[in-house]
Every structure is written in C-alpha cells, then in structure tokens.
Write a structure and sequence with these properties.
The protein folds into 2 domains: 220 residues, Rossmann fold (3-Layer(aba) Sandwich); 87 residues, no CATH class. Helix content is 29%, strand content 22%. It has 10 helices and 12 strands. Strands 6-7-8-3-9-10-12-11 form an 8-stranded mixed sheet, with helices on both faces. A 4-stranded antiparallel sheet has the order 2-1-4-5, covered by helices on one side. The chain is globular and about 65 Å long. The structure holds adenosine-5'-triphosphate. The site of adenosine-5'-triphosphate (ATP) has 14 residues, from β1, β2 and α1. It is a peripheral membrane protein. InterPro entries: AAA+_ATPase (IPR003593), ABC_transp_ATP-bind (IPR050319), ABC_transporter-like_ATP-bd (IPR003439), ABC_transporter-like_CS (IPR017871), Oligopep_ABC_C (IPR013563), P-loop_NTPase (IPR027417). Keywords: ATP-binding, Nucleotide-binding, Transport.
Length: 339
C-alpha cells in the first residue's frame, strides 16, 4: 500500500496587496504583503512559519483560511481551489480549517460563558445538532484541552492567559477540523505557561490526527513543534526546509540572522554567531529594495544582488532557498546551534 502522505494544502503563486491611503486627495499606495508564495502541506505535518513582525505571516494564515481574499493565486485544499468556492460551500468547508489567535483573552467574547464560546462554531457550522449533543461535544472538547466541566458556566475574565488559550483551542477543535492555523498562540503568555500550551497542541495533534500551521516570530518556539519551517522576509519565502536543516545548516543569511536570537548556553559560540545578527530596520513593503529584498541588511550582499530577484531554488533533495549566494556562504561548524 502507498504510504506517501497526501498533500492536504497546496499554495500556488499567492499574492496579496493592501491599498494604503496616503492622504485625502493622494492616490492610494500599494503595499505588497505576500508575493509568489508556493508551498505544500502534507497531511499530519506541522509547518512553522517564521519571520519578523510585518513580514506577512498572519496575512498568509488568513489567506489560507479565506478570511482574506488573495489578489492572485490558488489555495488548493485536497485539490479544490478555496479561492473559487461559493460562500455557502466555503462556510461548510470551514469546519475543516480553524484558527487559534495570539491574544486569547482579546479573542474571546467577554459576555459569553465558556460553554457558549466553545459551542459557537457548532451553531453556525453544524446547526442540525441538538442542544444536548452540542453540550456533550463541548464537555468532551473541554476535557481534551484540560478544562474542568465545572468551568462551563464561567466567563473569560475569570481565567488566566493559559486557561483562556485552552478555551480558544477548544473552540477551534470542536468542529473536528483537519487543519488548524495557530497564529502566535503562545506569544502573549508567560514563558512558564508557553511550554504547557505547546505540549497540549502536540498532544492534540497526535490524538486527533491534525495538521498544524504554526506562526511565530520566534524560531525557538517554532523549532520544538515543526516538522518543516518556512521563513518569510518582506512577503516572500526565502527558505523552506526541515527543522533540523534550518537549525544545523541554514542556507539563507536571513535564517542565520533569525537563529542568532535563539539562546545558546555557550557564550563563546553565542558571540561567534552574533556576527550574523540582524542590522537595521526592515524596509517598507510599499517600496521594497530592488533585486534581493534582504540585500540591504545582508552581510554577504554583492552589487549584483541589487539587480535580480533571486529565484526560489530547490536544492538538496527538496529544501528551498532564495539567495544568489547560498552556495558560497559557508556556515562555520562551531557556530551552528547544538554543535
Ligand atoms: N488590513 C491591512 N491593511 C493594510 N496593511 C496591512 C493590513 N494587514 C496587514 N497589513 C500589512 O501587511 C504586512 C504584513 O502584515 P502581517 O500582519 O501579515 O505580518 P506579520 O508577519 O504577521 O506581523 P506581526 O507578527 O506583527 O503580526 C505589514 O506591512 C502590515 O502592515
């Protein structure tokens, strides 16, 4: 029997722009939030998406879920293009694709009880369910995420951030989705609570056979949960590889720069790695640099990097990198994480 995992989701040539007003009578400017985005997600995989603030992570998550309409490109769910689905069909498809937000308390309606919040997606997506069936599902889902049954009639403000995120996870889980986009799910939580929520997501993934997209600006958070990691810079993919490849043999200078923010215990190694640290501000996506958009902050850049956009090349059996100079950039072995 063929055991090859199937592609649950395929993103093809995705582009998303926003029109930015630049004054009452001025023509709006175009901000390109995502461009030329191509990748696939296999069933059962966790794909991490990393990059600095403003690089397009949330926009990508929202375009996948059709909470935002892309300008161009396809979002293929088991081969079916979600961007072309009529609203009613998309509403039904939503059961399969859910989202968990960054700020758990802000994303929960303060006037609804925990039970009402968790049951809410069922009211719209499974209106045929009877009240008792809904309640039974809510209690089962609460148990799965570690909430006690007696919490069902309480309100969000009575909960800590970690508990509130469990409510958000239960709300996403109740429709029995196949894919959950986790948009910075632990960034707003205390460090001591972050590991609990990450472990819970990993357990739920195994228990329910979920596929996860895990968005974070923090590469160390993504490392622990992801099979593969997609690195975004100014709305473009600069690298896509397995977690081990990204950590042990990063090919793109931007990935190397992100790695310098991941703590390592040895101060000598940390100093060596710091030469890769990011310098300067991220350029405006309204007027990005010509050629390679990372060149203005790249310590390996040469004049020709300003001339052409580097293509996203497939290298070493499937990983992707977009850098004119990746072949010439050697990573000193002792500077690599964990060596
Ligand atoms: N509704 C919008 N209108 C105009 N510009 C937007 C809108 N949403 C996002 N942007 C812009 O698109 C770019 C990508 O934003 P996005 O929120 O996707 O980035 P991000 O990587 O998720 O950042 P963060 O980690 O800060 O959330 C940014 O320049 C942002 O200002």
């Amino acid at each position: 029997m063929d055991q090859t995992p199937i592609n649950l989701l395929e993103i093809r040539n995705l582009k998303k722009t926003f029109a930015i007003s630049s004054g009452l009578f001025a023509r709006p400017l175009t901000l390109t939030a995502l461009e030329n985005i191509n990748f696939t997600i296999r069933q059962g995989e966790t794909l991490g998406i990393v990059g600095e603030s403003g690089c397009g992570k949330s926009t990508l998550g929202r375009c996948i879920l059709q909470l935002l309409s892309p300008d161009e490109g396809q979002v293929l769910w088991l081969g079916q293009d979600l961007t072309k689905l009529p609203a009613e069909e998309m509403r039904r498809r939503r059961q399969d694709l859910q989202i968990i937000f960054q700020d758990p308390l802000a994303s929960l309606n303060p006037r609804m009880t925990v039970g009402e919040i968790i049951a809410d997606p069922l009211r719209t997506l499974r209106p045929e369910l009877k009240k008792e069936e809904r309640r039974a599902r809510v209690l089962k889902t609460m148990e799965a995420v570690g909430l006690l049954p007696e919490m069902i009639n309480r309100y969000p403000h009575e909960f800590s951030g970690g508990q509130a995120q469990r409510i958000g996870i239960a709300r996403a889980l109740i429709t029995e989705p196949k894919l959950i986009v986790c948009d910075e799910p632990v960034s707003a939580l205390d460090v001591s609570i972050q590991a609990q929520i990450l472990n819970l997501l990993a357990e739920l993934k195994d228990e329910f056979g979920l596929t996860l997209i895990f968005i974070s600006h923090n590469l160390s958070v993504v490392r622990h949960v992801s099979d593969r990691i997609l690195v975004l810079y100014l709305g473009r993919i600069v690298e896509l590889a397995t977690g081990d490849e990204i950590y042990e043999d990063p090919k793109h200078p931007y990935t190397r720069a992100l790695l310098t923010a991941v703590p390592i215990p040895d101060p000598k190694l940390a100093r060596q790695r710091n030469i890769d640290a990011l310098k300067g501000e991220i350029p405006s996506p309204i007027n990005p640099p010509s050629g390679c958009t990372f060149r203005t902050r790249c310590r390996f850049a040469k004049p020709f990097c300003a001339e052409q956009r580097p293509p996203l090349e497939t290298i070493d059996g499937g990983r992707l990198v977009a850098c004119h100079r990746w072949r010439e950039i050697e990573v000193p072995e002792e500077a690599v994480l964990g060596v």
